[in-house]
Amino acid sequence: MFNFDYYNPTHVLFGNSRINDIGKHIPQNARVLVTYGGGSAKKFGTLDEVKTALGHRYVAEFSGIEPNPHLDTLMKAVALVKEHNIDFLLAVGGGSVVDGTKFIAAASEWDGDIWDMWSKRLPIQSALPMGCVLTLPATGSETNGTAVVTNTQLGAKMGYNSPLLFPLFAVLDPTKSYTLPKRQVSNGVVDAFVHVIEQYLTYPVYNKVQDRFAEGLLLTLIEEGPKALTSTDNYDVCASVMWSATLALNGLIGVGVPQDWATHRIGHQLTALYNLDHAQTLAILLPSLLHVQKETKRIKLLQYAERVWDISGGSDVEKINLAITKTRDFFEDMGVKSRLSAYGISEDAIDKVISNLKRFNMIPLGEHQDIDELKLRKILSLSY
Fold it and tell me: Can you name the CATH fold of 11-176?
């Protein structure tokens, strides 16, 4: 087990009607900017609930934060912050809204070229405080200090992390996921699943606690994910999926263990270049990456096969191959296609993705930093 620090300052407010409690966690004299995406926050009454809970505080609104939030959109919100002297941000939505709001929090306090800071991961000294009301379980952004933003002009999707970007609080009300379209439910489950995999399927360092935590989350998502597509208003199912997605990336299961994140970094390029959903890119890439990396991940892949997929028969190679197949089948069963060809993307994407990764100095990748250009080509070729 590696040495580690673990710190998570986000106050989780879990359960039905917890929006009513947000006023306890925001200063009475705060000038609040409520950020959200499309019209669902208004349509289903969540925005009204938030405004009621905010009481007599000054409240401004910023809507239109898109999936894979765009830099130019978020900079409009930064201008609004400065125009109205906003000193508290409240995100209402899924991971993209939360990520975008983290960017707004950092950019509002940064003097200089914000994209230069973000892309070069320069440390920030301050950020506006923020909270969030989660409506889509998926990214785990509600309880971590990480955010990913897309610069459409550069065709770049870049992540950033700072302890100053942890939300002060996060409302996790499972009933807010009842009205989600099936595509978003599917994406959320796949996203959470791969978050766990990236911290679990590496190599053993005798961290049995983290392994069991990770395996428990994977099993829960496998059991509850398909139910969430059909039992859309089952509180217990929705609660299990929501809490699993949060725990998948609140930092806990990743402490003391090696982490990979190659699937995410390659996937970000597919999103930036072809506007694929984040979870779609993960479903496409993970099975191929596991196949190419099955020797370096051999011990953990066997553990994954036996403990998560209950595969006990056959040779080691057969167990590993079957586990990878079952992983792809799970994504397909969740309604997320796992081949680039299914999205009409031609094979010239291989060169474009690799070119982007080179441009942003992201090669090599993986927990051993052994995914070079040759392996990347294999991974992307197998993804068709």
Answer: Rossmann fold (3.40.50)
